[in-house]
């Protein structure tokens, strides 16, 4: 499961089937940023310190990541520009992500108005296990961040306003981990990309 999809499950109102971000960013911006994090975790997005670039043109299997690869192209881009491209060239990310989770039976897909399909759909939670696993991943990352995926989940959860829902004991670990990304320490390659992503999101 993509990190972006775990974020959707964490932001989902399980009963009403809608996604609402709790931070200042729109869902489109947040999910575009999350897909950039997924592309990083897949080993495809690199940085020279100021720009991002892809190190391979071979498309990834997940259609959203393949679309993102195509949107970014092979030129080096400032992170702010990469986020704008992802946001603009991958429209309706919220719906595409929800539909994908519904196709895998993790969510229901219910018309908002039965006789008016164009009114859209609600996506009540179907798999409590999937949501619980996502919540457990976030708590584990806050308690003992060890991998780039942990740091990516924390920076996105912070931007989405999810960290305030953690138990008080986990807050210190979460913000200590984010401090690693905020520092000027010599970070591993994927962490350097994530640190730039965090700066871009904080500047939105």
Automatic annotation (TrEMBL):
The keyword Membrane applies. It comes from the Bacteria. Its main location: Golgi. Keywords: Golgi apparatus, Lipid-binding, Membrane. InterPro entries: GPP34-like, GPP34-like_sf. GO terms for cellular component: cytoplasm; endomembrane system. It is found in: Golgi apparatus membrane. This is GPP34 family phosphoprotein. It is a peripheral membrane protein. One of its GO terms (molecular function) is phosphatidylinositol-4-phosphate binding.
């Amino acid at each position: 499961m993509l990190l972006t999809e775990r974020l959707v499950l964490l932001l989902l109102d399980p009963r009403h089937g809608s996604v609402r971000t709790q931070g200042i960013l729109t869902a489109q911006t947040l999910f575009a940023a999350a897909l950039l994090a997924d592309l990083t975790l897949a080993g495809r997005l690199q940085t020279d310190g100021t720009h991002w670039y892809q190190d391979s043109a071979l498309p990834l299997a997940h259609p959203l990541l393949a679309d993102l690869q195509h949107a970014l192209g092979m030129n080096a881009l400032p992170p702010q520009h990469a986020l704008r491209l992802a946001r603009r060239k991958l429209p309706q990310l919220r719906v595409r992500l929800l539909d994908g989770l519904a196709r895998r039976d993790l969510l229901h897909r219910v018309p908002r108005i039965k006789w008016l399909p164009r009114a859209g759909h609600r996506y009540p939670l179907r798999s409590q296990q999937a949501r619980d696993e996502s919540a457990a991943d976030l708590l584990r990352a806050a308690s003992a961040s060890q991998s780039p995926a942990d740091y990516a989940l924390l920076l996105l959860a912070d931007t989405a306003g999810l960290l305030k829902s953690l138990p008080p004991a986990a807050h210190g670990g979460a913000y200590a981990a984010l401090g690693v990304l905020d520092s000027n320490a010599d970070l591993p390659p994927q962490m350097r990309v994530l640190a730039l992503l965090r700066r871009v999101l904080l500047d939105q």
